[in-house]
Fold this protein.
Amino acid sequence: MDDGEASAGKHIHIRRLLGIAILLVAGGIIYYLFSPGESSLFPKCPFHTITGLDCPGCGSQRAVHHLLHLQIKDAFTSNPLLIVAIPYILTYTYLEYLGGKEKYPRVRQSLYSRKAIYAVLLVIILFWIGRNLI
């Protein structure tokens, strides 16, 4: 790889990082300023609207709003799975989009292998069932 290719790769990485940062900041501002429980700006869950049951994602928008206001208990009450999954989501983001997969291929392979993805799917399904039984 020559210097031109390395430089181009570095610029793509920086642009990707900047794009992610801009989206997170813009989304954070919107979720900080507006409460999903009170604003019509946010979409309603179609599964909940049709069935009256909660899907695994129900409450995620409210949870993000509460987290941004440092209301951890309220965030956990809105969607505990999202709160517990944040480290997993951040690790995935780092590994996939911020250059971590080259540095930590074993972490990526163990956390995002086929078995791990099936385990995550099982947790989501059990959470989905459990939250509607309680």
Observations:
- Residues 3-33 form the longest helix (31 residues).
- The chain has one domain: 3-133.
- Residues 3-133 form one domain.
- Residues 58 and 91 are 23 Å apart (CA to CA).
